User: Which sequence fits this backbone?
């Protein structure tokens, strides 16, 4: 019997987690993993847990509460790892998470036709309760949707992915001469300083993913030696930053790039982006890539293309509105 190690979800788990849900038959027309994971991670009263066994994700649970009752979703155990009490373990972990937050009860909804799942919950201590569960589909025809549903409190976002597959031949952007400028790498910048940069640069363009991370998860990223953060100083104060992620070598992702609002429109963006591109290509990557979206500054996409990035994919996403979940004021 392999031991189950349970921990919070991390973005690197996405592909394996969705594959697990697919193998367990949890994917239906109205369950969009992108939307659901983003919503659960952005909600302060929810958490996603994964269980690792033999180095692979073998179980999962998404647990949330309304202050009175807890509700588990995406409870899954890999078909190849069943019979080892992994389902019981990950549910007990979810129960402990609720108990720590003062939630006294957990409710589970199981389809009448799903006898094996009902038997599992009964076996670990859950009882049938004399309650009726009533539901109504909030669709124009009142019927179960055949495609993904956009919930209230969400934002529709168009995402563009761009890449650069060869070192550009552009002339290096000169350092602006109007004020004293310095571009310095922040070695192990610390969570508080990073949150300041991320918050000031991203508040107006709805950067929220890093806000949803706890300090330990964020520290693991920003202090990783393969994640390089360069801070642009103007007149001695931070004016912007750029983040290069080399963890997926030989590709490099230009993960974050931007200026504090008061420094936009002074020519600093071109200097910062050009410098980041030059630094990235010193590692001779297979490609340098990034993504931008319709929530970004309107000049972001034209600027990336001006510097030689070429779009290679576009997609439309629905994300939870971070303003409604306290992530952005």
Assistant:
């Amino acid at each position: 019997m392999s031991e189950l190690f349970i921990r919070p979800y991390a973005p690197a788990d996405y592909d394996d987690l969705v594959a697990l849900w697919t193998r367990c038959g949890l994917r239906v027309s109205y369950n969009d993993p992108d939307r659901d994971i983003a919503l659960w991670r952005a909600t302060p009263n929810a958490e996603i847990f994964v269980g690792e066994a033999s180095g692979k994700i073998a179980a999962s649970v998404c647990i949330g509460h309304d202050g009175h009752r807890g509700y588990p979703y995406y409870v899954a155990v890999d078909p190849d790892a069943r019979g080892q009490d992994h389902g019981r373990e990950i549910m007990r972990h979810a129960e402990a998470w609720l108990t720590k937050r003062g939630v006294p009860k957990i409710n589970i909804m199981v389809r009448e036709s799903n006898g094996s799942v009902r038997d599992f919950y009964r076996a670990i201590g859950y009882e049938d309760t004399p309650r009726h569960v009533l539901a109504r589909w909030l669709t124009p025809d009142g019927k179960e949707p055949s495609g993904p549903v956009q919930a209230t409190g969400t934002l529709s976002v168009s995402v563009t992915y761009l890449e650069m597959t060869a070192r550009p031949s552009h002339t290096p952007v000169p350092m602006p001469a109007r004020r004293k400028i310095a571009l310095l790498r922040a070695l192990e910048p610390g969570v508080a300083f990073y949150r300041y940069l991320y918050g000031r640069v991203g508040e107006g363009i709805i950067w929220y993913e890093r806000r949803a991370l706890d300090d330990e998860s964020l520290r693991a990223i920003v202090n990783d030696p393969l994640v390089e953060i360069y801070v642009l100083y103007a007149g001695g104060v931070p004016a912007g930053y750029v983040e290069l992620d080399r963890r997926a070598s030989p590709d490099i992702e230009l993960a974050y790039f931007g200026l504090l609002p008061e420094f936009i429109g002074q020519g600093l963006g071109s200097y910062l982006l050009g410098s980041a591109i030059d630094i990235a290509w010193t590692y001779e990557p297979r490609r340098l890539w990034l993504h931008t979206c319709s929530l970004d500054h309107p000049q972001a996409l034209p600027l990336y293309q001006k510097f030689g990035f070429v779009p290679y994919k576009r997609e439309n996403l629905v994300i939870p509105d971070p303003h409604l979940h306290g992530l952005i004021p």
User: Anything to note?
Assistant: Residues 148-152 have pLDDT under 50 and may be disordered.
